[in-house]
Amino acid sequence: EGRLKLEQTLPVSEKAWKAEGSRMFLDPRKPATVDDLLKGMIVQSGNDACIVLAEAIAGSEEGFAAMMNAMAKRLGMTGTHYVNATGLPDPAHITTARDLARLSSALIRGFPEFYKLYAMKDFRYNGITQPNRNRLLYIDPSVDGVKTGHTESAGYCLIASAKRDQRRLLSVVLGTDSDRARAMESQNLLNYGFQFFETVRLYSGNQSVSNLRIFKGDKGEAKAGFLSDFYVTVPRGSGNRIQAQVISQQPLLAPVRRGQRIATLRLSIDGKHFADYPLAALENIAVAGLIGRTWDNLLLMFE
């Protein structure tokens, strides 16, 4: 949103300077640039950096936690509640593996210019070089993120992401008993995903999946589909056995705007349902004139 610039310097509060846990060792007498703070937060897991950034954006860490909760709600992270910007333990500070995957996916898709920082293997600040705690960066060239975490209550945790050819997979491992265990289990999950699953493109962006009857519109049908290429990940070898069924919302009435959900795509493999996805209108449809609306009103009465 342009609230901060990378070259902008931020003051280091006493609260940030005294932060518990891992730090980038900020100096309270020396303001730090946003660029360094981001690297300190991402590469060094700096709790002090998290607090400085939170205070700069929201005025306080508590205010930033409220912003975090609002974003979590927007992303559909229904099992998450934040009370701080660092992840330090609190009885009310909770999340789930699924929510962490959802958050990481939004980060990778939405901020590719900043996601590159997660692949940095070390960062030096205030005369101190610290390595990235994500071991997979050093042993698997396809891994380029995402984030480690450790507290006594949560154990050793790792969100890992790897891209091989054109496929990217994300794994979330929580609650292991060592740094090595979280790395090995994450590696196992990623290898399993790449070996035993495949990703197939079912529809191209703006391709009409189904033409739906629409009433009271200046057109008689509405094209339903996806605004961008639509992929699904399924067990390897089952991609050619996917069956699709369109469940429309009837009666569908004008006006309809492009991007509005107007149907559901139900997918199954060998007759077994495995997922539902929203289908959007691919075009705007305006309300018909008086004669068209009157005629459709009569049709709706009989239907």
Mean of residue pLDDT values: 93
For the sheet with most strands, the description reads:
5 strands, antiparallel
Element-by-element helix/strand order: EHEHHHHHEEHEEEHEEEEEEEH
Low-confidence stretches: none
Query: Quick one: overall form?
Result: globular
Structural class by secondary-structure content: alpha+beta
Distance between the termini: 49 Å
Sheet with the most strands: spatial strand order = 9-10-14-13-12
Strand content: 25-35%
- Backbone CA Rg: 24 Å
Number of strands: 14
- Could you estimate the helical fraction of the residues in percent? 25-40%
User: How many distinct helices?
Assistant: 9
Q: Can you lay out the helices and strands and say which pair or pack?
A:
Blueprint: E1 9-10, H1 14-17, E2 32-33, H2 34-42, H3 47-58, H4 61-74, H5 97-110, H6 112-115, E3 122-125, E4 128-131, H7 136-139, E5 143-151, E6 155-164, E7 167-176, H8 179-196, E8 197-203, E9 208-213, E10 221-225, E11 230-235, E12 242-248, E13 261-269, E14 272-281, H9 290-302
Antiparallel strand pairs: 1-2, 3-4, 5-6, 6-7, 8-11, 9-10, 10-14, 12-13, 13-14
Helix pairs in contact: 2-3, 3-4
Describe this structure in words.
Strands 9-10-14-13-12 form a 5-stranded antiparallel β-sheet, with no helix packed on it. Strands 5-6-7 form a 3-stranded antiparallel β-sheet, with helices on both faces. It has 303 residues and is an alpha+beta fold. Helix 2 crosses helix 3 and helix 3 packs across helix 4 (61-74). It has 9 helices and 14 strands. The longest helix is centred in the middle third of the chain and has 18 residues, at 179-196.
